[in-house]
Amino acid sequence: GVDPSRINITSNGIPLNDAESGQVYWVNMGDFASNVQSMQIQRGAGTSTNGAGAFGATINMQTDNLRTTPFLRIDASAGSYYSHKETLSFGTGLLGGHWAVQGRLSNIGSKGYLDRASAKQNSYFLQAGYFENTMVKFITFNGEQETYHAWNYTSKYEQSLYGRRYNSCGVYWDEEGNMRFYDNQIDAYHQQHYYLIWDQILNRHWNFSVAGHYTKGQGYYEEYKDGEDLAEYGLSSDYGLAFSDLVRQKKMDNDFYGAIASVNYNSLNGLKATLGGGWNRYDGAHFGLVNWVKHPVEELFPNWKYYDNDAFKSDFNVYAKAEWEFVKGLNAFADLQYRHVGYRLE
Predict the structure, then answer these.
(1) Which of 1, 165, 263, 300 lies 20 to 30 Å from 68 when distance is taken between CA atoms?
(2) pTM of this prediction?
(3) In angstroms, rounded to a whole number, what is the distance separating the alpha carbons of residues 287 and 221?
């Protein structure tokens, strides 16, 4: 019984888990599976690797290999509640004997089963590489999503009043007491990834890999709040009113970057060993804005900032592991790791 934040998820050995929450928000990586060549899943406490501690499981995904022949592919699908997905994939094949470019464009959307529980996702994946005994590959992919909130529990009593598809997110009442729903009750996020990977074969026993990465994340969720205490937002009303309806945004602006490296040995006679490590840095800005207040407020100006927190996290690790088949069918495995994590929140 562990939650998803205890699962270490990597892409090409590069961490995908959010540095603070430990979660992977797949909604920010729409249609990423279309570019996964292979996936290795290990349940239980994992072996040493880059990224978050693997108390529950490890998932390592390898993205597409560059194909040697040109191709163009279009996939389209549709389903209930206006759900749809369109994907365009292409590849140049081998250029000049050593170069190739490959990519994908995707659009995913749905109106959702619950009222207003819509989703819009746009994404791309692009890679270019040179390969022989040396392989150098540049990969970039992104995800941009906008989803209407559908986070609240709906009781059977509410369903008896408003139907099974009732969604209470964004609800408010107008001056006449009529139930309304806020149009912009949304979660919106844009995540951009860049990888530069160098794999080198030295000889039949030795190879090494070095990769640098950078991820930019920006987004917010906006919501209508009914009868909020203005003092909690550092605001007061001209008319001495302590409470008011308001619209707020909770925003994030993140930078995550670093490098990983490993040296691998294979004796071709039962012994495999790896020495590796990584350094990653996360800079995260968290802040909240009040965009509108129903009752007149003295201090309010556009984008009133009611909290402002900055987080900084660094993660350094070195590991060594070896596997030895000393008798046919019988293996020994050793794994050591040193890790240092520093976290500061202002």
Answers:
(1) 263
(2) 0.91
(3) 11
